[in-house]
Amino acid sequence: MPAPTGLAATWPDLARNADFATLLDRSLRRLTGRSLLPDGSTDADWLYAQAPFCLLAHDTSTDPIFIYGNKEVQACFEYDWEELTRLPSRLSAETPDRDERQRLLDTVKRQGFIADYRGVRVAKSGRRFLIEQAIVWEVFDEAGVRHGQAAMFETWRNLTALDPML
Description:
By secondary structure, the protein is of the alpha+beta class. The protein has helices at 6-10, 18-32, 44-49, 71-77, 81-84, 98-111; strands spanning 54-58, 66-69, 113-122, 128-140, 146-153, 155-158. The chain contains 6 helices and 6 strands; from the N terminus they run H-H-H-E-E-H-H-H-E-E-E-E. The radius of gyration is 15 Å and the shape is globular.
């Protein structure tokens, strides 16, 4: 496994790191006016273990790796923390959906964020699910340094063979 780079090297335990939680929250707030944390809190434990939404982030490497996924994301994608934070983010979509996913990420990079994103993703078991009303945004610090991209969604549902999204 490659050595951690970027934020994962600077802040080794991103799962419960208050500075990282603040970075995610402030990036989202600057771009959209929305907050991840209740009442301006920096409660990284709440964001990781109790938030009622899925939150994940990947780094800026050429083939981005997930650097964060809260407990809701881990349940949704069926990966634990160690598995998720070694996973190239492109593998969260099936091969035919990867071009669409890359277009989304390129648009986010140009615009700063996208609200109301909808797309098919795949769990570790191969189970397909549809995420809806997702916000995807650029993660950057106060100095404007880009650290990756993050996504937050509350709505998702399993897909079946009979689903019209297939």
